[in-house]
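Translate sequence into structure tokens.
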Amino acid sequence: MSSVAPENHIKSPFQSFHTRHKRHAQKTTKYVELIIVADNREFQKQGKDVDKVKQRLAEIANYVDKFYRALNIRVALVGLEVWSDSDKCPITQDPFTTLHEFLDWRKVKLLPQKPHDNAQLISGVYFQGTTIGMAPIMSMCTVEQSGGIVMDHSENPLGAAVTLAHELGHNFGMNHDTPERGCGCRMTVDRGGCIMTPSTGYPFPTVFSTCSKKDLAASLEKGVGMCLYNMPEVKVLYGGQKCGNGYVEEGEECDCGELEECMNPCCNATTCTLKGDAVCAHGQCCEDCRLKPAGTLCRESSNSCDLPEFCTGANPHCPANVYLHDGHACHNVEGYCYNGICQTHEQQCITLWGPGAKPAPGICFERVNSAGDPYGNCGKDSKGSFAKCDARDAKCGKIQCQGGANRPVIGTNAVSIETNIPLQEGGRILCRGTHVYLGDDMPDPGLVLAGTKCGDGMVCLNRQCQNVSVFGVHECSGKCNGRGVCNNKKNCHCEAHWAPPFCEKGGFGGSVDSGPMRLAADSVVITVAILVTLVSLLVATVIIFLKRKTLLRLLFTNKKSTLEKLSPPQKPLPADPLGRSSRLGHSAKAAGVHIPGTGPLPIPIPTVPRPPPTIPLPSR
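Result follows.
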């Protein structure tokens, strides 16, 4: 970007965009927790008034937030820092050196003290040449490079805001809107054009082009911006509480923005309270003003290094995004996960050269990157000089590709650098690299990205090919008992039927960070089914117990009737000479009569004859 003239008034037209995306990332609001730092020269430039500096930085952040709302991204200012005494890192007119020093300071000092997603330096120093800002591309959320530097080049804070939005766009993976890309911009050049134009002037641009939207969608799909899916802690927002700012702050039940923009049926925009019997108003785990059940998927995984998140049943917001621990193998072990992205040489070649591109043979990396010049190097040292690559680090320097388009497709002022390397057995190998002319506001995009696989069990870090064990992924996964993987919070993400934190007991999967994988309703259904079965068995047992006598009587009666029907007719017994009845006082069974089919022969019971009648003695 080039220097621009001041402006006293700006009209800010905004629009939402609806680029389709593999994942619902574009539909999901993302939040950049931003810290802005003002260097000592900026402090002096604003009359050495700390409050004045902070007010200016807050205005800059408000503009940037408005620009990004059209992309369903909120930029939340979570911190301001003014270097009123002296600079905390070297600030010079060399933008590359200043960026390098600022990002190092952020990583070592700022990030441990104040967690955030991105940091931008507003400098009162005039950078060399036409550069008024610089930022690494596709670096959002990374520890090493999520940030940029901005020269405060205009009296109007809108000027620095546009530059900051531009550099933030590079962090998101947006390239410049160059003519060959054929980008659509709904603002003509005389009305400012679009934010990612390489050079801007008066009036300032306030919208993003179709190319920027496509670049953003592609970056999100790859996994850029993994840290942006959690809503910021409202207590740390700069600027104080306000109903209508879109953030639910202390004392508010909801906040759907200003009255004219609120479309939320669950929230009263005037009072920031819930309507009627509404339980919630915001969040992916809130539907029809009610909480979704625990275990409901609220954020799909976007790539092979991402992990899904699930509703907890107690919170309207989806848990913060988590992804695989750095160092996990991905793409069939063709790469390793790093900051939620599966980094490979092939993917970077496709990004630079388009479909059909692939990495060149190893000899290309070794020969080209051993030169230590603008066309082959392992980056720059702290003094700004090109560094030669050692043989083992060659695949961490300038990326070398084959195939693809005739020239780089990244949309910057990059050109193809082709090198023919003769082979001992005859023939030559064509190696294709890229070179970006000085004056661009991005560090060399032709360098291999950190986290890229450079050998079996090896990854690129700080331009060196290091052992993947540096991430400690195997030690972390070891505590998951073979039933889960380790996430970026160093916690186990368990398989569906095992419970966190260590996947050693039965449960519903997921992690302490991402919520349960299976619906809690599953457990309710199982429990109800078990209870119904037990109750049914109990009722049946009681009925059988109460009716047992009746059942036994019926069974005995039926058996007796059957036996009588099966008994053969009995022959009449001969007459008793004593005149006794021929009918015995015993049943056939008791008398020893055997009925066929009724069991073994019974033991006969002897019949005792009656005593003879008593004859009275004659009287004497």
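Note: Residues 520-546 form the longest helix (27 residues).
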